[in-house]
Specification:
Structural class: alpha+beta
Shape: globular
Number of helices: 2
Number of domains: 1
Number of strands: 5
Order of helices and strands: HEEEEEH
Strand content: 15-25%
Radius of gyration: 13 Å
Largest sheet: 3 strands, antiparallel
Length: about 90
């Protein structure tokens, strides 16, 4: 995934913050010290275009999800996906 985002921002991405039609992801949260909160800098709070390959993977992974974290886990307060649901980017 080539977005220039911080790991903390990737961990806080939500389905409701991506517009596949417009090709834009809203970055406005980060996961730091066990909490989801504001991004590190004001300049980080922005829309960014996802790589087209990454957007296609997310779209196929999205299914019927309309909200919630992209990458839920027990750490971020979401429900983790089982191994059988993981995406192996190299195989796509």
């Amino acid at each position: 995934m080539c977005t220039g985002m911080r790991v903390s921002e990737v961990l806080a991405l939500r389905w409701e913050h991506i517009d596949f039609g417009a090709g834009a992801m809203l970055v406005q949260q980060g996961f730091v010290n066990g909490r989801i909160g504001k991004v590190k800098t004001e300049a980080s709070n922005d829309y960014i275009p996802p790589d087209s390959g990454f957007a296609q993977i997310l779209l196929s992974w999205k299914g019927s999800k309309t909200n919630g974290l992209f990458f839920p886990s027990h750490v971020t307060g979401g429900v983790a996906l089982g191994r059988k649901n993981w995406i192996h980017i190299g195989s796509q």
